[in-house]
Fold:
Amino acid sequence: MTGVGGRRVLLGITGGVAAYKAADLARLLVKSGVDLRVAMTEAGTRFVTPVTMQALSGQPVYTDLWDPRIPDNMAHIELSRDRELIVIAPASADFIGKLAGGLAGDLLSTLCSARRCALMLAPAMNVEMWRNPATQRNVAALRDDGVIFAGPADGDQACGETGMGRMLEAGEIFDLIQGFFAPRLLQGRRVLITAGPTEEPIDPVRVITNSSSGKMGFAVARAARDAGARVTLVAGPVSLDGPAGVIRINVRTAEEMFAAVQNAVPDCDIFISVAAVADYRVKRPATQKIKKGNQRALTLDLEENPDILAWVAARPRPPFCVGFAAESENLAEHAMEKRAKKRIPLLAANLVHEALGADDNSITLFDDRGAHPLGRGAKGELARRLVEHIAAMLDVK
Ligand code: CTP
Structure:
């Protein structure tokens, strides 16, 4: 179970092609242990059937204000009262307009209007409908009322046009729901994170790099953001979307990463060094592509890169420093040695063959009190546990 396990969510589906993504969202929520209830507008049922949603949620699906399964005709009260969050995905322009105007003529709008819990909307509509001043007025009014907006995103639309209005992917909405429920353990803290590999040029087309995917660092950035921190993420070359609400600085080489960290570190309370920084760079990268020629062997002259984490930890008043160590053997021994060498309070260690590129990992934390295995799990879940551990260490300080 993840941080949302046991949470009580109502998923509302209105009419829009993006309703197919709601099926995936329901699957993600149920898989993570959410107690999910689904309600749909009549238009929503044109795009995805209640039977599909029932099968995915394992619960009856509601579409009608006069549903005879609810004895006293109080469906709008019954279905929303015990919920902690209502998520409407997709939320059509029409539905957003209804909510902004306080209209409550069908089950879903009535549910939203009679709710006591938070409401999150994932808009999905054509770009012109989204840009329409009436829609923008409605969105602004709902934001003022405290409604949370998940998206929309920019991109290709089902109608063939391109622009703002595309619904976020199911995983992105799920991520925001997890964020909504996360305890604010790092509220007000400023967190600097490095992630991904670095690339050291050999010539204009070749580089020395490693197979870090950046997934763990990005998961840590997301977990810290969800915990209420203000997060800056210095990312090496990775093909990952930056978590919303996180300041992202893209870098390529270890020296660029070092410069970005030097610049950002005076404003941070916590530094989490997840990046797989190349320890060496080519001393004089060739300005033109190296030709094979007749040589049978090629020697690269390498020089050492700065150790970014060790530099941060050695500052006069360092932030709380967390290192990561990917080891291929003798995990505990190497991890404890590394933690002592870099003089950092906390080190997260894993075995490389269990982590690189994968969505899962198995991590053990090492601090003054010894080893704390976090066990095996999705990187997002392990990142959340790491944040809990950091918050606990900062609290006792
Ligand atoms: N690190 C860093 N700068 C470097 C090398 C490493 O900031 N030039 C950080 C990593 O982000 C990680 C920690 O130091 O948090 C440990 O990285 P790792 O590569 O495992 O350790 P090294 O110190 O490079 O030791 P070795 O490669 O010999 O295992």
